[in-house]
Amino acid sequence: NAGVTQTPKFQVLKTGQSMTLQCAQDMNHNSMYWYRQDPGMGLRLIYYSASEGTTDKGEVPNGYNVSRLNKREFSLRLESAAPSQTSVYFCAIRDRGGLLYNSPLHFGNGTRLTVT
Amino acid sequence: SQKIEQNSEALNIQEGKTATLTCNYTNYSPAYLQWYRQDPGRGPVFLLLIRENEKEKRKERLKVTFDTTLKQSLFHITASQPADSATYLCALARGYNKLIFGAGTRLAVHP
Q1: Test mutation, B94, B99, B100, B105, chain A, max A CBs within 10 A
Q2: pLDDT by residue (tens digit) across A25-84?
Q3: Cis link prior to A83 (omega < 30° from 0)?
């Protein structure tokens, strides 16, 4: 998906290990999001950043931290990975301005994380 | 809290027929509702948005309806093709800056 790049694409961690998922965009959008997707659960919002310098919790923030490094980059960190964090993680971006609060999300292609 | 329900069973249809997918929600009616398509191994891709004051929206072979009385949106693909096979997600607004998603319905179009 043009515009949103996620790295790495795949990762296997042992319980207790830490890692950072990276997300970078080249669409100059203000808002950035981290979702996780599990079978039968749909996409669940972990954290989001409405604009550079701000971050807020979503539905399932426990066990995660985020950093909005600049307008382009939004990283998700797992300090001590647990098997329950095995999932596919998607970064998404959205433009925001005026009445564009209903603008669509643009997603990256995800990071597939397995915690053993 | 707001919940979204999409049929978890896959929808199998014959090529050329109309596919109809359902999205039901509880509690308050959102200001708008969005539909996305997701292919295996890829991120969701936005298809259509419909606002609460719109009954119907069309884009090529796609049509979305929004019934705030029934708390339901229907997503139609007319003259379906095997290339339409994918999982379709609905999403609705929650507050100013959040979207919540349904689990999606997988559509399989058979030649």
Answers
A1: B99
A2: 998 888 899 999 998 888 999 999 988 889 999 999 999 999 998 999 999 999 999 999
A3: no
How far apart CA B45 and CA A109 sit, in angstroms, is: 10
Q: Which residue of A has its CA nearest to B96?
A: A101
What does B31-71 look like in DSSP terms, one character per residue?
A: SEEEEEEE-TTS--EEEEEEETT-SEEEETTEEEEEETTTT
CA–CA dist B70, B14 (Å, integer): 28
As a whole number of angstroms, the distance between CA B29 and CA B110 comes to: 35
Averaged pLDDT of chain B: 91
Task: Find out whether A47 and A64 touch, Cβ atoms under 8 Å.
Answer: yes
Residue B95: pLDDT band with limits 50, 70, 90: low
How many Å apart are CA A105 and CA A45, to the nearest integer? 12
> Is residue A51 within 8 angstroms of chain B, CB to CB?
no
Does the structure show a pLDDT above 60 at A98? no
Interface test with B, best of A68, A95, A105 (most B CBs within 10 A): A105
Has residue B41 got a pLDDT over 80? yes
